[in-house]
UniProtKB/TrEMBL annotation:
Domain of life, source organism: Bacteria
Species for this entry: Streptomyces djakartensis
Pfam families: LUD_dom (PF02589)
Protein name as it appears in the record: LUD domain-containing protein
Top-level taxonomy: Bacteria, Bacillati, Actinomycetota, Actinomycetes, Kitasatosporales
Residue ranges of domain LUD in the record: 103-212
């Protein structure tokens, strides 16, 4: 008998004389909490997202579809990036204005190879205004989780207002829990016992979020 079987056996014996729960799981916990705080228009929700992203020290930019490629090129140039990681399903028009070397998202890439890449550009799954959070779900235009955690500079494109929701409950409704979800609230940061902030420990040191209007 394995350790797992022994533990499960003890659990079954402990629960043998316990009455069954007649309340279905979906009704066991009251979920009458507010789905969002306040009554905001779509533009106000986007403004709140921008405000909270900036509060987390993300750099927020705004543009429209026509200006997106030029803005990405300018950000890569300002950063001095010589290479950029590209998810397989990223819209090629987003990088049409830059000559920076593209690096494909490959399963065999080592952490060292990813660390040598200067920047990564991705889309997102959803953005949550009240918490200033960007969520990635590993879709083709976002790539695997590690390509957004190893490079030091992440440019993330959010389509507004279609990808922006007010609250976490609204965001969860749009996400598939079976997918590899990455929740990002600003650039990676941690603090020691004396509250000295250090950025870039668990992910990119610089997060730039582009809010693209017209979608």
């Amino acid at each position: 008998m394995s350790s797992r079987e022994r533990i499960l056996g003890r659990v079954r014996r402990a629960l043998a004389d316990t009455a069954g729960d007649d309340v279905p799981y979906e009704r066991a916990v009251p979920r009458d909490y507010l789905r969002e705080h306040g009554d905001r228009s779509a533009s106000q929700t986007v403004d709140l997202l921008a405000e909270n992203l900036a509060d987390y020290r993300a750099v927020v930019h705004r543009t429209d579809g026509e200006g997106l490629a030029g803005l990405i090129a300018a950000l890569l140039d300002k950063r001095g990036s010589a290479s950029v990681l590209v998810p397989p399903g990223l819209d090629p028009s987003w990088l049409a204005r830059t000559a920076v070397t593209r690096v494909a998202d490959r399963a065999e890439s080592t952490p060292h190879e990813l660390d040598e890449v200067d920047s990564v550009v991705t889309a997102c799954a959803v953005a949550i205004a009240e918490t200033g959070t960007i969520v990635l779900d590993g879709s083709h235009d976002q790539g695997r989780r590690r390509i957004t955690l190893v490079p030091d500079h992440h440019i993330c494109v959010v389509r507004v207002p279609s990808q922006v929701v007010s609250s976490v409950p609204q965001g969860l409704e749009r996400l598939d829990p079976a997918r590899p979800l990455t929740w990002i609230s600003g650039p990676s940061a941690t603090s020691d016992i004396e509250l000295d902030r250090v950025e870039g420990v668990h992910g990119p040191r610089t997060l730039e979020v582009i809010l693209v209007s017209g979608d």
